């Protein structure tokens, strides 16, 4: 991998999960990373999570980069304008804003769910991306070679739930990435979308009552058997770092790439040394109707 010394990266939604891991992996290659999100040590976001942008910036520093925490609510145009005013250029922009977890209504048909929650989910997950891109893309497109990466859930538009609002939000991000692939090419830059597989995020570990050290204890218990193929946020982070340093990244313009595809392309592993292949698991187990509870996960890691 080439390094990112002297490069400026902005990661939106970098407080936790994939955003945090992506920021750290970009920092590991020497980038100066603007770590943006809503939760600081002084002020929590409505998500109520303990992770902060300052912690992420410190992790970037520890990895070898320079972390710059900037509180920014991407539903606010004025706050994004303030972020932009502190930047001279952007070489790598990773758009990972989400903020929709609290609006998911599990097990309800759309017409019986809350319209207000559905609209709030789309607002937090789609409007934020459009606002961030409108204000920050000029700093990327000003010179050739920039990379813009959208982060979503899923590598195709098949409906898998859990709600129509969620499906709309994640599909819209994929659509944005396809559009970026066309528009940024005119400036000699590249736009695309990435997705993790079954993400073993901080929140997911908390939901299942396990830690990164004992996460396998939840498989087949409180967690579904598919959790055996889960991955850490660092897995996608390493894939994004590989894209950001790939001199031929333009071949992926407009595409949606899963962490598993990035792993096959660039040959990296997850932080535990395994290589979870969510794509193969879905194709060879789920789509063929095999019982994931009785399928050996080892060949898929």
Automatic annotation (TrEMBL):
Which InterPro entries did the record assign?
A: NAD(P)-bd_dom_sf, SDR_fam
| Natural source organism | Amycolatopsis acidicola
Q: Record's superkingdom?
A: Bacteria
Please name the Pfam families in this protein's record.
adh_short (PF00106)
Name by which UniProt lists this protein: SDR family NAD(P)-dependent oxidoreductase
The protein's matches in SUPFAM superfamilies, at most eight in alphabetical order, are given as: NAD(P)-binding Rossmann-fold domains
């Amino acid at each position: 991998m080439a390094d990112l010394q002297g490069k400026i990266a902005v990661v939106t939604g970098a407080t936790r999960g994939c955003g945090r891991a992506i920021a750290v992996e970009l920092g590991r290659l020497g980038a100066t990373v603007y770590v943006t999100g809503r939760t600081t040590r002084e002020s929590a976001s409505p998500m109520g999570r303990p992770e902060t942008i300052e912690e992420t910036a410190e992790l970037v520093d520890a990895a070898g980069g320079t972390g710059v925490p900037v509180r920014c609510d991407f539903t606010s145009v004025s706050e994004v304008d303030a972020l932009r005013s502190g930047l001279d250029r952007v070489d790598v922009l990773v758009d990972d804003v989400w903020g929709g977890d609290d609006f998911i209504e599990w097990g309800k048909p759309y017409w019986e769910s809350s319209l207000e929650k559905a609209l709030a989910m789309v607002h937090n997950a789609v409007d934020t991306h459009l606002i961030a891109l409108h204000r920050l893309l000029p700093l990327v497109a000003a010179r050739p070679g920039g990379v813009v990466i959208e982060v979503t859930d899923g590598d195709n538009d098949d409906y898998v739930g859990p709600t129509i609002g969620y499906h709309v939000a994640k599909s819209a991000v994929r659509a944005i990435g396809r559009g970026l692939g066309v528009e940024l090419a005119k400036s000699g830059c590249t736009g695309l979308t990435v997705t993790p597989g079954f993400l073993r995020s901080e929140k997911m570990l908390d939901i299942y009552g396990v830690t990164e050290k004992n996460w396998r204890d939840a498989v087949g218990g409180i967690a579904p058997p598919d959790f055996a193929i889960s991955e850490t946020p660092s897995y996608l982070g390493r894939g994004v770092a590989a894209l950001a340093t790939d001199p031929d990244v333009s071949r992926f313009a407009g595409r949606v790439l899963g962490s598993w595809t990035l792993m096959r392309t660039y040959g990296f592993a997850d932080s535990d040394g395994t290589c979870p292949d969510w794509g193969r698991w879905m194709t060879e187990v789920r789509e063929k109707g095999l019982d994931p509870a009785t399928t050996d996960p080892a060949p898929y890691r």
